[in-house]
Amino acid sequence: LRDISGLKQQADGCSVVEQLKRNEARDKLLRKVALIEKRCRLEKQPRRKVELFKQLTELKHQLDTFDNEFN
Q1: CA neighbours within 13 Å on the CB side: how many for 7?
Q2: 38-58: per-residue pLDDT in tens?
Q3: What is the DSSP letter of 63?
Q4: What single DSSP character describes residue 53?
Q5: Which of 29, 33, 37, 49 could be disulfide-bonded to 43 (CB atoms 3.0-4.6 Å)?
Q6: How far apart are CA 16 and CA 11, in angstroms?
Q7: Which helix (H) or strand (E) element contains residue 58?
Q8: For 19, how many CA atoms within 13 A lie in the half-sphere containing its CB?
């Protein structure tokens, strides 16, 4: 089942359900990053663009932390 789903066997022995929840949370972060990147590109107002960029860097930091924590 793990071979078909593409899930890795974790050293900590996480169940498939936990791995699926982690993957869903990671995908949700990736979607947020993509959305804010698009909004940042399309935004005309410099002040709003700076706010979006701050949000983007925070989300990317969360994503890096998430990846480092579970790999």
Answers
A1: 18
A2: 999 999 999 999 999 999 999
A3: H
A4: H
A5: 49
A6: 13
A7: helix 46-70
A8: 15
